[in-house]
Amino acid sequence: MERPSQRKIAVVGLGYVGLPVAVAFAKKFPGTLGFDVDSAKVERLRQGIDTTGEVDSGDLRSSGLEVTDDPARLRQADFFIVAVPTPIDAYHRPDLRALEAASRTVGKALDRGDIVVYESTVYPGVTEEVCGPILERESGLKSGVDFKLGYSPERINPGDKEHTFERIVKVVSAQDAESLEVVASVYGAVVEAGVHKASSIQVAEAAKVIENTQRDLNIALMNELALIFDRLGVDTQEVLDAAATKWNFLRFQPGLVGGHCIGVDPYYLTTKAEQVGIHPQVILAGRRINDGMGSFVAARTVKELVMAGRTLNGARIAVLGLTFKENVPDIRNSRVPDIVQELRQYGAEVLIHDPLADPEEVRREYGLELTPAEGLTDLDAVIFAVPHQGLEDLALSLCNGRANATVLTDVKAALDRSRVPEGVYYWRL
């Protein structure tokens, strides 16, 4: 049995997933290489700057990680970890273009005896049926004979400093027993929580998509309950507080479901299901509920404005927070733009403020402009969409004379109701 330290590691894709993985391996495997096609990102990383906020500058510099945008450098590696984005398109279909491009790049660097492990979220079968053939074409080698495939689903939770790469049990899989032992030993040398050996690559691929599909459905149930209780005039959070006193009640929160995992992964599973003749009903029902929550929040805010006697056409509404979750700069698949779009259809003027989001990225991804805090004036309503640290005080101050906002919508029920100024129409999901 070869020693894990004999392997030369290369991580392809240095984003929210790949960079923490690369840094962790670099600490244990000298000479670990990080590759990304984004030359500007590579240059920032060389300077010790991680714009995702997942790795601090000190760890990045001290890890010894080499970063490059030169694909020829990949030839020095024999153990490849591919961690590129796998989003969905406008029709909720898997978009595998980045994964296919990464496979072509790795294929050109492959040699006999190499192992390629994919961490990107996919539906069962992609690693062996889509990526494997690309690697074969580019390398001229035979999958399962000259080189081996593996799959180890990523479990990175952006902004979470407790459940880090090293502290989460790692599911590993490979094409055969021999390569599985190598993959397990390499990851086991880095992941303190240990590894779980899946019986096949498809089992590991399926495990990843159901992890987030299960969470998506649980949140969808909470969202549907919130719709019901709102119609009944009952506060959803008070209902959940009461129900949570039972020992086996699972406390999930209603809210907007976005990001690179929960709002995306179920569509990978349903795509594969439909390919084999099964039309998923429960999963897609949950997706429809969650994808519609932005419109509901907007409509509920409009209702509060009407009750407050404010005119809708031309109403100035501040939306605080645009990223997909609190305290991270990641705007991928955020559902906050759904609120903005719906409000604009009512004729409202919407001002968006987010201190963590990159203005240029927001402009490029959503065609929206961010407004500095000092520009939030003469407001009719405030929607506290993403509770970044420090935004609570701003939300309350905008309703307390600073901007004269009469309506306050609290999407994640993050505000202390006792601090809401008297006379403000307050509603929470």
Give structural notes:
- The protein is 40% helix and 12% strand.
- It is α/β, with parallel strands linked by helices and 429 residues long.
- The chain folds into three domains: 4-202, Rossmann fold (3-Layer(aba) Sandwich), CATH 3.40.50; 209-289, N-(1-d-carboxylethyl)-l-norvaline Dehydrogenase, domain 2, CATH 1.10.1040.10; 292-428, 3-Layer(aba) Sandwich (Rossmann fold).
- α12 links the parallel β9 and β10.
- It is elongated and about 75 Å long.
- The termini are far apart.
- The model has no long low-confidence stretch (mean pLDDT 94).
Throw out a few tags for this protein:
8-stranded mixed beta sheet; alpha/beta; Rossmann fold; 40% helix; 5-stranded parallel beta sheet; N-(1-d-carboxylethyl)-l-norvaline Dehydrogenase, domain 2; single chain; 429 residues
Uncertain segments of ≥5 residues (pLDDT<50)?
none
Succession of helices and strands: EHEHHEEHEHEEHEHHHHHEHEHEHEE
**Overall mean pLDDT score?**
94
Taken from the alpha-carbon principal axes, the silhouette is elongated
Which class do the helix and strand fractions yield? alpha/beta
Please give the domain count: 3
Number of helices: 14
Radius of gyration: 24 Å
Distance between the termini: 56 Å
**CATH third-level topology of the largest domain:** Rossmann fold
As a percent range, the share of strand residues is: 5-15%
Biggest sheet details = 8 strands, mixed
Name of the CATH class of the largest domain? Alpha Beta
